[in-house]
Amino acid sequence: SGSVKAGKMPEGEKIRQCKQEEEQQQKEEEREGLIEFYSSYQELFQFFCSNTTIHGAIRLVCSKKNKMKTAFWSVLFFLTFGLMYWQFGILYREYFSYPVNLNLNLNSDRLTFPAVTLCTLNPYRYSAIRKQLDKLDQITHQTLLDLYDYNMSLPQRDWSTSSTQKRSSRSLLHHVQRHPLRRQKRDNLVNLPENSPSVDKNDWKIGFVLCNENNDCFHQAYSSGVDAVREWYSFHYINILAQVPDAKALDESDFENFIYACRFNEATCDKANYTHFHHPLYGNCYTFNDNSSSVWTSSMPGINNGLSLVVRTEQNDFIPLLSTVTGARVMVHDQNEPAFMDDGGFNVRPGIETSISMRKEMTVRLGGSYSDCTEDGSDVPVQNLYSSRYTEQVCIRSCFQLNMVERCGCAYYFYPLPGGAEYCDYTKHKAWGYCYYKLLAEFKADVLGCFRKCRKPCKMTEYQLSAGYSRWPSAVSEDWVFYMLSQQNKYNITSKR
């Protein structure tokens, strides 16, 4: 019989076998676990390529054998990635642009009737200011005779003048001689004025030159002789008014001689319903329904539910060289805003019934990041010279006047007077005309920055107007209408059509 003897296993072999069993057991545990861990990134990448459902990623990083396919999917991937961020940029920019929706609300409530300003279109009655304008009219008469061979008929003058008026006449004559009205021949070279559009030199006919103490001159030229005469006459007219201590008192308000009848909502108006002010060019102005009395309201449309006026114009007493139109100047505006007759007004002609319909538009702008509007103008770097609330036109005119005082040393007669300043007068400021027209050209080109400084108000009220016209009174009714108005106002009215 034989016997088998088992030898002992070496100690090192036993340890190695135990490690292999432990590693095998660890791998089996990893396969059976919910989360599998890989010993290298290569194994993880192989698992990703074999099991992912992202088709683009498979074709981009797992197609080693087809480089064209990999390149195509690489381009496609980066293109879509860029489009995604481009879309994000659009959404981001739109969000931070603070877009708004337009909301329109139509209401039928009682509305506050706007303020209505009416002017005579005649700065002064010629009979009241004839003495002050007498010398200027004579010079203009001689100028028209020299330039156009036109003999202008002037009213009979009062030769009794005081020593003060004689000195003023000599001063005016000297000033006019320094700034004469000249007519250019068509074959002469003409320097284009800085404040006029570029036109052919042969279109210029007449104008005047303004120079300063250094003989630096500014050409104010016109293609129309009528425009040139009116502007030249107005320039000297302003100088005359600036020398009169209280020029507005030369032609005091006479409401009854201008407005024959006034009704609002079928009720008669009286003096408590209007305020008076004087405009240097448009004359006596009357504002109805301002804040000086109880404000009118209206809830129904139609002529009978609004303001109705019968106005008389005295054409025979107009300043002939300054007032070239006849009728009345009308402006509709908010109660808290000044009446800028030259900007927002319009003329109505005599012998015509003008029916004006209006639509109120209120604009409310969002401030902050949405716009640079201003609530009350307190954050605008321009002093408000008007006794009214802030508007864009109030700011622009105040800006020009403040620049006028700073640059020219005096204030323009048509705008409010800043504190410590005085109105321009050629007896004290000999070159103010040159400075004014030079500054006006810079103002229109926005060199002064007034249009940039003056921001729009956040709340603004505007009135859109439309007008209809008809003859008044009619041919068959004018006799009795004129007779009744004559008896009512104790004035002789005749029709000359």
From TrEMBL:
It comes from the Eukaryota. The keyword Transmembrane applies. Residues 1-25 are annotated as: Disordered. It is a multi-pass membrane protein. GO terms for molecular function: ligand-gated sodium channel activity. It holds the Pfam family ASC. InterPro entries: ENaC, ENaC_chordates, ENaC_CS. The keyword Cytoplasm applies. The chain crosses the membrane at residues 71-92. It is found in: Apical cell membrane; Cell projection, Cilium, Flagellum; Cytoplasmic granule; Cytoplasmic vesicle, Secretory vesicle, Acrosome. One of its GO terms (cellular component) is sodium channel complex. It catalyses: Na(+)(in) = Na(+)(out). Keywords: Cell membrane, Cell projection, Cilium, Cytoplasm, Cytoplasmic vesicle, Disulfide bond, Flagellum, Ion channel, Ion transport, Membrane, Sodium, Sodium channel, Sodium transport, Transmembrane, Transmembrane helix, Transport. Residues 8-25 have a biased composition (Basic and acidic residues). Belongs to the amiloride-sensitive sodium channel (TC 1.A.6) family. SCNN1A subfamily. This is Epithelial sodium channel subunit alpha. The lineage of its organism: Eukaryota, Metazoa, Chordata, Craniata, Vertebrata.
